Amino acid sequence: MIGNDIVDVNITRQQINWKRKRFLDKVFTIEEQKLINNTANPFSVVWRLWSMKESAYKCYMQYNKKRFFDPKKLTCTITSNSFGYVAIDLLKLPVKTVIQENYIYSTITNSNTENHCFYIKNASRRDQQEKVYTRLKEIISKKLSVCSKKIDVRKTAVGIPKLIVNKQENNILFSLSHHGHYGAIAILNQKNE
Amino acid sequence: MTNKELIPILKNIIKPYIQDESAFENLTEETDFINDLKINSANLVDVVLDVEDEFDIEIDNDAMEKMLDVKNALLIIQSKLSEK
């Protein structure tokens, strides 16, 4: 299982008014809103929960044919400062969240997953995606001992990126995220790596 | 209201959130909010709230679930307006 999401804290602070009337009601369940209201740092909790939901959504969409936009269908439980779960449909996904000064990063927890978070200097949207793809190709190139030029990324009909190596679909599971000045890659390693 | 009348209002609502100018300029009913206009999913919540405010309607999560493109946004608006 794989899924991740990174939130650029500064951009989010500028661009999203989560305190707006009815915003929380569209995104968070009553239980989740209790978590948000009972903390000294609601901003952090809001974006932790949001990134947990996004990570779980991306994971779920690896197996689902239709996109949907209903954040309340993904329900979060917090178990500690870094760990929690997201329930969606029949899945219960363990999620780890890292809260840094400039970004909040969530990823489906798995001992075989390697996570890379990195700064992107030019935050234009096209650059963000390009930098993430380039970094992904560098990592995969080393893993498979294949030249990066032979590696391509293509998105499925529901927006899940897949690797094409030497023109053939490769089934390494990975998840990409980018927002503002931050990019992130999670890759599920095969057990014997 | 007809879809033709609704489209410019909808365009005005989504404009602050779009991150792909050319997709916005060439907007059709098939235009996808996330894939084509590159609207941040957090801003999609804003779009839903702005639509509710603009038309004085309520879009519950069951309706919001499908609101991923212009066509479905128009359908939902029409449906909620007809319920009034």
Topology:
The complex is a heterodimer of chains A (193) and B (84).
Chain A: E1 4-8, H1 9-15, H2 23-27, H3 30-37, H4 42-60, E2 75-78, E3 83-88, E4 91-99, E5 103-108, E6 113-119, H5 125-144, E7 151-155, E8 161-165, E9 168-170, E10 174-179, E11 182-188
Antiparallel strand pairs in A: 1-5, 2-3, 3-4, 4-5, 6-11, 7-8, 8-9, 10-11
Helix pairs in contact in A: 3-4
Chain B: H1 3-14, H2 21-25, H3 41-55, H4 61-64, H5 70-82
Quote the distance from N terminus to C terminus of chain A: 17 Å
Biggest sheet statistics of chain A: 5 strands, antiparallel
| Spatial extent as radius of gyration of chain A | 17 Å
Uncertain spans of chain B: none
As laid out across the biggest beta sheet of chain A, the strand order is 1-5-4-3-2
Number of helices of chain A: 5
Bin the strand percentage of chain B. under 5%
Largest pleated sheet of chain B: none
- The percent range for strand residues of chain A is 25-35%
**Overall geometry of chain A:** globular
- Give me the oligomer status: heterodimer
Name the biggest interface: A-B, 23 and 22 residues
What this model shows, in words?
The complex is a heterodimer of chains A (193) and B (84). Chain A starts with a strand and ends in a 5-residue tail after the last strand. A five-stranded antiparallel sheet of chain A has the order 1-5-4-3-2. Chain A has a three-stranded antiparallel sheet with strand order 6-11-10, with helices on one face. Chain A has a three-stranded antiparallel sheet with strand order 7-8-9, covered by helices on one side. In chain A, 31% of the residues lie in helices and 33% in strands. Chain A has 193 residues and is of the alpha+beta class. In chain A, 35% of the residues are buried. In chain B, helix 1 crosses helix 5. The radius of gyration of chain B is 12 Å and the shape is globular. At the A-B interface, helix 2 of A face helix 3 and helix 4 of B.
